[in-house]
C-alpha cells in the first residue's frame, strides 16, 4: 500500500518494534500495534473527554431551547467527526450518530473550524484532490467558494451550510477556540433546511455562537476587540460568561 520496498518496510518496522510502537503477533508473521501506542490513545481520550465535559451542558442548553439536535464536532483529515451529541425533540430530526464522519467541504463545522487556524494548510489538503463530488445542489466544490464561506465566519461568528451535504438538510455551526485563539472544534445544529435556516440563519446562529464563545472562554480564550482609541479590550460578554 505504501509503495515502499520490502527491505525498507522491514527496516522501518524493526525500528518501530524496537521502540515499542509495533509488535510481532504471537505465533504469526503479522505485526500489531505495540504497547507504546496506548500512551497516545489515552492522551487523546483524556483531551477529548475534558472538551466533552465542558461542552456537554451547552449542547443540552441549545437543544432545550431550540428542540434541535446539537453536536460537538472535530476536524480529522478531510472529514468532520461527531464526538458528542444531544438528541433533539422535534418529530423530524437529523441524527447521524456519534462517530459519524462527513466530507469536510460539505460541512458548516469545517468552515467554522477552518476560520481560525495558524495557516491555510488544512484548507489546501481539503481541496487537494479535485474535482470533488457534488452531494447536493449547493455543495461548494470550488476552493474559492469555500474560502469565501470560511471568511464569512469571521464576519458573523458562525458558519452556514445550506443543502450542501444532502437536499433539504442544512446546518449552523460556530467555532470553539483554544487559549491561543485557534479553532479546535465546533458546535453544530443540523436539521431540515425549513427549520434551521428560517426565518433567518441568525436565529440559531446567534444561539450556537453564544455557547461556543462561552466554551472558548472556559478554555482560556480571551476575545480582543478594537476600541475607538485603537487599543484592544477583552470582550465583556466573554468574561461575563465564565
TrEMBL record:
SUPFAM superfamilies in the cross-refs: GAF domain-like, Winged helix' DNA-binding domain
Keywords: DNA-binding, Transcription, Transcription regulation
Key word DNA-binding present: yes
Pfam families named among the record's database cross-references: HTH_IclR, IclR_C
Single Gene Ontology MF annotation: DNA-binding transcription factor activity
Single biological process term from Gene Ontology: negative regulation of DNA-templated transcription
Ranges of residues in domain IclR-ED: 36-221
Source taxon at top rank: Bacteria
Domain HTH iclR-type: 1-35
Record-linked InterPro entries: GAF-like_dom_sf, HTH_MetabolicPath_Reg, Tscrpt_reg_IclR_C, Tscrpt_reg_IclR_N, WH-like_DNA-bd_sf, WH_DNA-bd_sf
Stored PANTHER family: HELIX-TURN-HELIX TRANSCRIPTIONAL REGULATOR, ICLR FAMILY (PTHR30136), HTH-TYPE TRANSCRIPTIONAL REPRESSOR ALLR (PTHR30136:SF24)
Protein name stated in the entry: IclR family transcriptional regulator
